[in-house]
Amino acid sequence: MAQSNIEWTELTWNPVTGCSKISPGCKFCYAESMTRRLTAMGVEKYKDGFKVRTHPDTLNIPYGWKKSKVVFVNSMSDLFHPEVPIEFIKAVFAVMNNTPQHVYQVLTKRSERLVELADQLTWTPNIWMGVSIENEDYAYRIDDLSLTPAKIKFLSIEPLIGPVRTLNLDGIDWVIVGGESGHKARPLEKEWIDYVKVRCEQSNVAFFFKQWGKPKFNANPNDPTIDAKHPKHAKGGCELDGEIFRELPVVAA
């Protein structure tokens, strides 16, 4: 468990580490870069580098959190990676089922396996299920997500590296958009963001704009959130037409 700098969560919990590239959004994988550093530092959990590994010893961690938390599950992996056994996925879900005071955000690019296994899992309301989409070619993941029983469904359109025009938001509760950061980050166009934002407004879906990624991508070079000292600073800034959009999904009582 670790405090997170990710704007849309509080903590990260990694019962699985390691992954493999599946689509263009993976090209400059943050988790892979971070794993190299942790391996070099001699952190035992990452002794096998970016190979997929399960960590049963981490399953008890959420039971020790005294206050309710918002938790991103497997920021360093993908719970639905084909090398993660169904038995272990069920064990992770059991922990989430047994700790309803916490909100768990699960994100995958393996939407086909998500659909395959969804009926074998218990979907308590505190499990938010999301899929990553980086451009139009992967919009089909939305359709896969819609087939799951998750009570809250969300999209992480990040890194947005191309337009997404097939955006069926029926049954979707939340959309996160963000540009790629890092030395070799691919460009982000404002029209791509605007399209998603308008679709969210039309469908009454919560819209969360995370970041432009790099200042040179930002449509407004004077965006005050580019400054690292700004309280709402994000990589490359996070204003869109002079506003900050960090909406969260509406959760029924």
TrEMBL record:
<dbReference type="Pfam" id="PF07505">
    <property type="entry name" value="DUF5131"/>
</dbReference>
<protein>
    <submittedName>
        <fullName>Protein gp37</fullName>
    </submittedName>
</protein>
<dbReference type="InterPro" id="IPR011101">
    <property type="entry name" value="DUF5131"/>
</dbReference>
